[in-house]
TrEMBL record:
InterPro entries: PA_dom_sf, PA_domain. The chain crosses the membrane at residues 6-23. Residues 80-171 form the PA domain. This is PA domain-containing protein. The keyword Isomerase does not apply. Keywords: Glycoprotein, Membrane, Signal, Transmembrane, Transmembrane helix. It comes from Anopheles darlingi. SUPFAM superfamilies: PA domain. The keyword Transmembrane applies.
Length: 209
């Protein structure tokens, strides 16, 4: 039976829509389909592992700032560093209630109220070694996406690395540490996944599979 033009168009459309679905669902999911290389998935992103507490022992993905700050792996790297939720969480001033805990460590801060660069500069000013910014407002349109963090066009810069963490990951990390009354998570950053197969990456179970 010879396929009609209509049937060919229909099949092509179904294949095209299926490809779109894979691409969209793969925004936060590394296990998209067989045959893809891990190198193609991770692109310029950075990964880290939480080693403690056990409730958070997974591999997390970060989107580094595009045009400001240092870089994970050169400016900052640690096999057992501390990820410390900043208090207050917005990091829009240098008046941190837990400033002593931020010294030499990675500050976990929330997006909003001031620029990404301002947050990084404030963390650096109190001795923080790096900053991870996240969107924890589940009602935000950006909650399920990685934000491209760019310079705010002011005459300023920072030497510490800055990166964006997916909102759902950031929210669960903060809530879990708060519930456990633990002031920080122990992390290994960065993690080299170049030679790790996509299905072997230990992603958080609360992300879409």
């Amino acid at each position: 039976m010879v396929p009609t033009v209509a049937s060919i168009v229909t099949i092509s459309l179904i294949c095209w829509l299926s490809l779109i679905g894979l691409t969209k669902s793969g925004a936060n999911n590394l296990h998209m389909y067989d045959g893809i290389r891990t190198h193609d998935i991770i692109a310029g992103d950075v990964f880290f592992e939480i080693l403690d507490p056990p409730e958070l022992e997974y591999t997390y993905r970060l989107r580094p700032a595009k045009d400001f700050g240092g870089s994970f792996g050169t400016t900052y790297k640690a096999s057992s560093g501390k990820l410390v939720p900043a208090v207050p969480a917005d990091a829009c001033s240098t008046r941190f209630e837990n400033a002593e805990q931020l010294v030499g460590n990675i500050a976990l801060v929330e997006r909003g109220d001031c620029s990404f660069l301002t947050k990084a500069i404030n963390v650096e000013a109190v001795g923080g070694a790096a900053v991870i910014i996240t969107e924890i407002d589940a009602e935000s349109d950006d909650y399920d996406y990685y934000i491209e963090m760019v310079h705010d066009s002011t005459d300023r810069d920072t030497d510490i690395p800055a990166a964006f963490l997916l909102g759902k990951n950031g929210l669960i990390i903060r809530r879990t540490l708060s519930k456990l009354k633990q002031p920080y998570a122990v992390v290994n950053i960065p993690v080299n996944l170049t030679f790790v197969q996509p299905h072997e990456i230990n992603q958080p179970p609360w992300l879409q599979w």
